[in-house]
Specification:
mainly beta; 9-stranded antiparallel beta sheet; 9 strands; 115 residues; Lipocalin; globular
């Protein structure tokens, strides 16, 4: 089911659930901060998550958003969110490996967040 695409993802928490690829069966929550950073953690984790200082978040069209950041693990993650069909396409790479994963996503409401 299509969700209304926000003009920006800044201030939002997005949960993506992977159904294909090396992260199949996992889901992650990403919260995009006004200072250009991102905090992410595995869904359901009650910890404070991992904070990355730089994250690009851009609406390419009203229904397509692109996210990219370099994680402290050394991986660059690039994600495309399609609000038309609520699909997520991600690409992770470092100096030795490259992988892709696909799944679905949703923008969480405050009541759905685990603190």
């Amino acid at each position: 089911m299509k969700q209304k695409s926000p003009e920006t993802l800044v201030g939002e928490t997005v949960r993506w659930k992977f159904t294909e690829g090396p992260t199949k069966g996992t889901s992650y929550d990403h919260t995009f901060k006004a200072d250009g950073s991102v905090v992410y953690k595995e869904s359901g984790d009650t910890g404070k998550g991992t904070h990355e200082k730089k994250c690009a978040v851009e609406a390419i069209t009203p229904d397509v958003h692109v996210i990219s950041y370099l994680a402290s693990s050394g991986y660059t993650l690039t994600v495309v969110l399609n609000f038309e069909d609520m699909s997520v396409h991600s690409y992770a790479s470092n100096e030795k490996t490259w992988s892709s994963a696909r799944g679905t996503f949703e923008v969480l409401k405050e009541s759905e967040l685990v603190h």
